[in-house]
Design goal:
Layout lengths: L1 H25 L5 H25 L7 H29 L5 H12 L3 H13 L1 H27 L2 H6 L2 H11 L3 H14 L7 H11 L1 H13 L4 H5 L2 H22 L6 H11 L6 H9 L3 H26 L1
Helix pairs in contact: 1-5, 1-11, 1-16, 2-9, 2-10, 2-11, 2-15, 3-4, 3-6, 4-6, 4-13, 4-16, 5-6, 5-14, 6-9, 6-14, 6-15, 13-14, 13-16, 14-16, 15-16
Length: 318
């Protein structure tokens, strides 16, 4: 019962932030231009700071003998997730426009690890487990802000008009974006056992803390633009939600359980995989011209329904 209560609390916090964004849009305090600029600000400063803070804020960073295996598990699992999501959407979602396919693949592959995942892990396994989750989160960020960004930015018009050279150039920019540079630095800091609780670390932490609430405000603002009927009447979004919350964690549990000997680490990974759609997907859609309507719908559905599915996945692996 404690697991269900904690998960419900985290969902309530997210919903409250979304509601604030929803009200702000209805009251005219947020609009498309404001959302776009705010998203760019977060992707340039706040999100990179959050990534660095996942290492700098840890005073007891695990040694390389723990970090490297978890890093390897994460890399393999997210490589599998992006390939599986891409193939699944390509062959199952026939007839769906390319903009929506990219969002569906993004939703399946990437969960909201940084907020809901860490909070639930701390409740179930303790603070030491959060350190392991932070290490697992580093390759997640690498894939999220490279392959994930490619999923989001795909459009039918762009697919037809862009030359191969232009596409390669656009992809290469993803690997030198602020969030990717922060991911590279975070990996190095973790291996070197570098943490910082001083002024620099505190400033980075404060800036990173703005990521989740601002992302949820933007999500709420985006929700306010959509008729209620459009949030609930898309069958593909329900299939995607099922795959995000149930399908992917079960696949990870049964497939990778054979190669991960430590049952606690496996449990942590499965719980992280069971989180709802990554909230930065909304900001990516605003910043890079993705299908914002579909992304908002998937974020809404996965966030609401994860209230029940996260505790169930946790009970399965514990």
């Amino acid at each position: 019962m404690e697991v269900f209560i904690h998960a419900a609390t985290q969902m309530a916090i997210l919903c409250a932030l979304v509601a604030c964004g929803f009200i702000a849009r209805k009251k005219g305090m947020m609009n498309n231009e404001f959302d776009s600029k705010l998203s760019t600000l977060v992707m340039t400063f706040c999100c990179p700071a959050m990534i660095l803070d996942s290492v700098l804020a840890n005073q007891n960073i695990p040694g390389p003998e723990v970090i490297l295996p978890i890093f390897g598990y994460s890399f393999i699992i997210y490589l599998f997730a992006v390939v599986f999501s891409y193939v699944f959407v390509r062959f199952i979602y026939r007839g769906v426009k390319l903009t929506s396919r990219g969002v569906y693949a993004f939703t399946m592959a990437f969960g909201n690890v940084g907020f809901i995942g860490f909070a639930v892990i701390n409740s179930l396994f303790g603070s030491d487990a959060v350190l392991l989750a932070a290490v697992f989160n580093i390759p997640y960020n690498v894939f999220l802000f490279s392959i994930g960004m490619m999923f989001i930015s795909r459009t039918g018009k762009a697919e037809k008009s862009k030359s191969r050279k232009t596409e390669i150039k656009a992809i290469s920019k993803c690997f030198i974006s602020p969030v990717m540079i922060a991911s590279y630095i975070a990996v190095i800091l973790a291996l070197l056992q570098v943490s910082d609780s001083g002024p620099i670390g505190t400033a980075v932490g404060m800036l990173g803390d703005a990521t989740v609430p601002v992302a949820m405000l933007i999500t709420g603002s985006s929700l306010a633009k959509l008729p209620a009927r459009e949030m609930l009447n898309d069958g593909w979004s329900y299939l995607t939600t099922f795959m995000r919350l149930v399908g992917m964690p079960l696949i990870v549990f049964f497939l990778f359980g054979f190669i991960i000997p430590d049952k606690e680490i496996l449990a942590i990974i499965v719980v992280l995989t069971a989180t709802p759609a990554a909230t930065v997907g909304t900001m990516m859609c605003v910043s890079y011209g993705g299908d914002l309507k579909t992304m908002t719908r998937c974020t809404f559905l996965t966030t609401v329904l994860s209230l029940a599915t996260i505790p169930l996945m946790a009970l399965l692996v514990m």
